[in-house]
Every structure is written in structure tokens, then in C-alpha cells.
Amino acid sequence: MTNSQSSKTALITGASSGIGAVYADRLAARGYNLILVARRADRLEALCAQLSNAHGVKAEPVVADLTLDQDVARIETLLASRRDIQVLVNNAGIARLAPAAQTSANDAQAQIALNITALTRLTQAAVPAFVARKQGLIINIASVLAIHSMAISAIYSGTKAFVLQYSRGLQQELADTGVKVQLVLPASTATELWDLSGVPLAALNKSTLMTTENMVGAALAGLDQGETITWPSVADASLWDKYDAARSELFASTQAGMPAPRYQIA
User: How far apart are CA 230 and CA 217, in angstroms?
Assistant: First the structure.
């Protein structure tokens, strides 16, 4: 039996390898046709052929560099106009891990362009269409570094912190629309991102590395369980609840209208 006539389609960015390729396989297995977006045409075409044969779905390769305005615009048009697109997986991302003083302007801009600007523009393109149809799913891949920063991750952590806060705001905004937003915060995952980041994969502690298959499997299990925020490697889910409660308490304490006593001059 083939799913090639399925009317539901998932668009996945950064889909030619790693986490994006695993999402493509798992969603194809769930009956989704695919629009796979990445820079490498040869890998995209091979993956589309493989997934079409394995799952009987349509898989369209779309070659695009999402750090380029004109390429982002092409994907925006797809998201706004294709009524069959029900899922957007914002997976494309880049890390350049080095002290800010040793990071070139181009490397800094590339991280912001891909991790923030492209993700935001594609989400903003999808949301009105999803809301109009009263259904849709957006999966935003952030990182545990959204809540933690190191001496080499100031820019990368900043971009992922944006994804966290942007996604949480959208979740509140879209709560009663039929459109769901899942935020996924992976820890170290065995992908090509590391070798391109300046910190080789081989240098990492193997006991802390998760495979892409396990990461995506956990993220989809969280989605199936109704989670809006998924920490694939965190065993004690109450840790997030405590963190979020402390964040809410801190925010509430800011609504005072006066300087805190320790800042008041006698």
C-alpha cells in the first residue's frame, strides 16, 4: 500500500543529514509527504529517492541556502501557498563555537541569519496559513544552550535563547487556534554540526552524546504525549517545572514600579 496520495505534507529544513534526515524518515513512516530543504542537492535527491521507495510517499527536494534572503523567500512562498503543508520542522541551524573576540563578523551573522532570521521568517509565513485552516504543527529545534552559555557559545546560546522565547510566545498566542508549536531542546547530539563548529565530534565525551535517531524518537514521543516543550535527555521532568516556576516568580517580582531597596540612595 502506498501513501503517495496523502494530502498531508511536512516541510523540513536542514534535511539532508543528521536530525533533519531522521525527522524526514520518521514523518514519512507516519504517512507524510515531504518537502526537504537543504543546501546539498546530491544528498537531498538521494534521500528523497530513498524515502519515497521505503515509505511510498512523495518527497520533493528543494535546494536552498537559508542564510540567503532570496532562498528564504522561496520557502516562505511554499509555506504560505501550499495547502497540503501541515507540519514545519525548523531544524536548520549552525554553530560557530569560539570566543566572541575570535569570531568573525561573517560567522556571527551566519548564525543569526540561520538560527534566528530564517526560522522566524518561515514560521511567520506558516502561521497565518495554519491558523486559517485551524490546524498545523511547528517544531522548532533549539538547544539546551538556550538556557546556558559558555565562554565559546555566547552567539550560539543567544540564538537558541531566542528560539526558546519566540516559541513560548507563539504557544500562548496560538493556544486556541488548532495550531501547535513544539519546542525541542536537545543536548549534545551526534551530528555533522560539531565538526563544522570548531569543536570536533571526536573531542566530546561519548557518554553525553545522543544519536540522532534517539533524539528524534524522544522528541516525537514527547509530541505524542502532548508536550509543548521537550527535553530529550532530561530524565527528571520536574526540573523544568521548577526552573519555569522560578522564572515566573522572578518576572513577577520585577513588577514593582520602584527601584529595589538595595538600589535606593539614602
Answer: 11
Q: Angle at which helices 105-112 and 154-173 pack, to 10 degrees?
A: 20
Residue 156 among the catalytic residues = yes
2 falls within a domain: no
Q: Are 11 and 35 in contact (CB under 8 A)?
A: yes
Residue where the block lists cell 529545534: 141
> Domain for residue 52, yes or no?
yes
Q: Kindly report, residue by residue over 26-68, the tens digit of the pLDDT.
A: 999 999 999 999 999 999 999 999 999 999 999 999 999 999 9
Annotated catalytic residue, options 156, 166, 243, 263: 156
Closest to 181 in 3D by CA, of 118, 116, 135:
135
CATH number for the domain including 19? 3.40.50.720
Whether residue 230 is contained in a domain is answered as yes
Residue closest to 81 by CA, chosen among 133, 12, 153, 144: 133
Amino acid identity of 138?
Answer: I
The CA-CA-CA angle for residues 66, 71, 74, to 5°, reads 125
Task: Check whether 5 has a pLDDT greater than 50.
Answer: no
Would you call 47 helix, strand, or coil by DSSP? helix
Q: Write out the residue range of the structural domain in which residue 138 sits.
A: 9-235
Q: Does some domain include residue 59?
A: yes
How many folded domains does the chain comprise? 1
